[in-house]
Amino acid sequence: MDETTATGTGQGTGLTAHAFEVTRRLASAGGSVVGVTPPPLRHALATLARSVDQLPSVAAQVDVLQQEVHAQRLGLQAVRAELAALDSQLALLERSLAPVAAWNHQTTRLRLSLADALEHLPDGHDDDRDRDYDQH
Q: What pLDDT does residue 66 have?
């Protein structure tokens, strides 16, 4: 990882950039600098090394999170496709039921008309017909 990656700015500013610069100078100086390095600097470098060691686990966690987000988006796309198919099926069913509903309304009107017509028949005629019908 270079200082551009570490800082995320590409300019190498701030504490992280300074730490990377010190680390680069120490690495280029070789082992002779280790003996003259003051304890606070050694401690800072050790802390920096531990922090850098934790970066891969954070990167792995970010990768997993990115994969989970992508999987959720794919899941949503699948749900959208299923909903679109269901909507098409329901539209077809709705169109298919329209003639049945119309027929049902016509049948209800016919039944009511027949019932109304039977109520208005003269009384004397339908009693004779009912008796004749019952005898057969």
A: 96
